[in-house]
């Protein structure tokens, strides 16, 4: 794992993330991001627009949190190494959980105007957050759930609020239970289908990342094969089926556009995409409806229950 020294802005290699205190950045990518190769030469890095978020992250981590290190995905992963990229993606949920604080930079959130009451301020903030691109991206789902401590900043890096104080707003915006937002260990009590529904309206640049961005949500580790397309999401579901006896994995409904597809279509037992779980947002554990002692297995003839 590579960490940025918040004083020198140089990368340092560490073996165990749990042995070091660091801040971690959650953001949406834009033009001119500083890459792993760029940051080897600070003169090159400072010539790119993305350096401003690195400097801001390090400044807050160093001055406000007295942290020696920070981690930012754009420049702390050598994406030219498939092995390093695979390790990072499979470890990312743990890294966000291990971080002392996650700083969320909402690049499209305008500074909040002052309001007469706290209620008015929260309503204004809730409306503004729903419009932020950060809440529409696949990768930021686990970045919202995993951290123990999270702080939100607007486009000018002005502090907006902490996750602990915004549970109701964040829950209403994302559909994720406040109990999960406050303690990611409670993920295991949420049916698989409901967890999938959280990603139904989120987008990723590459189709494979629809699956890869959910690995931490389900506690799954698997090899990355960019170029496999929708097979990545099928592999994810197969891995979930091996690890869990949660039958809600199979209650998805095929979606087409904005409407449920009612036309018959030959398909397997697995969904094609997280969007097929769109209608599963209200599924709850009830009398162990989906979590029971019945074993099931995927065979060459299909599902055996």
Shape: globular
Task: Trace the largest sheet across and list its strands.
Answer: 2-1-4-3-5-6-7
Strand tally is 11
The computed structural class is: alpha/beta
Number of domains: 2
- End-to-end separation in angstroms reads 41 Å
- For the CA atoms, what is the radius of gyration? 20 Å
Q: Number of DSSP helices? A: 12
- Identify low-pLDDT runs: none
> What integer is the average pLDDT?
91
| Biggest sheet layout | 7 strands, mixed
**How do the helices and strands follow one another from N- to C-terminus?**
EEEHHEHHEHHEEHHHHHHEEEE
Fraction of helical residues: 25-40%
Strand content: 5-15%
Domain Heterokaryon incompatibility: 22-108
Organism: Fusarium vanettenii (strain ATCC MYA-4622 / CBS 123669 / FGSC 9596 / NRRL 45880 / 77-13-4) (Fusarium solani subsp. pisi)
Pfam families: HET (PF06985)
Protein name: Heterokaryon incompatibility domain-containing protein
Provide structural commentary:
This protein has 305 residues and is α/β, with parallel strands linked by helices. The chain folds into 2 domains: 1-188, no CATH class; 190-305, no CATH class. Helix content is 32%, strand content 12%. The protein is built from 12 helices and 11 strands. It has helices spanning 42-45, 51-64, 73-76, 82-98, 118-130, 139-145, 167-174, 178-182, 192-197, 209-212, 215-218, 231-243, and strands spanning 2-5, 11-13, 22-26, 69-71, 101-105, 150-153, 159-162, 255-256, 259-260, 297-299, 302-304. It comes from Fusarium vanettenii (strain ATCC MYA-4622 / CBS 123669 / FGSC 9596 / NRRL 45880 / 77-13-4). This is Heterokaryon incompatibility domain-containing protein. Residues 22-108 form the Heterokaryon incompatibility domain.
């Amino acid at each position: 794992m590579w960490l940025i020294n918040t004083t020198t802005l140089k990368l340092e290699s560490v073996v165990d993330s749990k042995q070091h205190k660091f801040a971690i950045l959650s953001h949406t990518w834009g033009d001119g991001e500083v890459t792993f190769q760029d940051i080897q030469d600070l003169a090159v890095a400072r010539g790119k627009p993305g350096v401003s978020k690195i400097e801001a992250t390090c400044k807050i981590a160093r001055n406000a949190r007295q942290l020696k290190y920070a981690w930012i995905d754009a420049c702390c992963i050598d994406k030219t190494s498939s092995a390093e990229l695979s390790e990072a993606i499979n470890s990312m949920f743990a890294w966000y959980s291990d971080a002392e604080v996650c700083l969320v930079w909402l690049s499209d959130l305008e500074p909040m105007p002052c309001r007469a009451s706290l209620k008015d301020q929260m309503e204004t903030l809730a409306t503004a957050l729903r419009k932020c691109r950060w809440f529409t991206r696949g990768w930021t789902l686990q970045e919202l759930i995993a951290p123990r401590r999270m702080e939100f900043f607007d486009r000018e890096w002005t502090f907006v609020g902490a996750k602990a104080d915004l549970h109701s707003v964040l829950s209403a915006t994302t559909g994720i239970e406040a109990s999960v937002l406050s303690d990611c260990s409670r993920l295991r009590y949420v049916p698989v289908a409901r967890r999938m529904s959280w990603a139904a309206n989120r987008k990723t640049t590459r189709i494979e990342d629809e699956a890869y961005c959910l690995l931490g949500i389900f506690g799954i580790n698997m090899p990355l094969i960019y170029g496999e397309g929708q097979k990545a999401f099928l592999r994810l579901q197969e891995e979930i089926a091996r690890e869990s006896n949660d039958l809600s994995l199979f209650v998805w409904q095929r979606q087409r556009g904005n409407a449920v597809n009612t036309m018959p279509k030959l398909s397997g037992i697995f969904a094609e995409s997280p969007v097929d779980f769109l209608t599963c947002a209200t599924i709850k554990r009830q009398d162990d409806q989906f979590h029971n002692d019945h074993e099931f297995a995927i065979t060459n003839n299909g599902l055996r229950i």
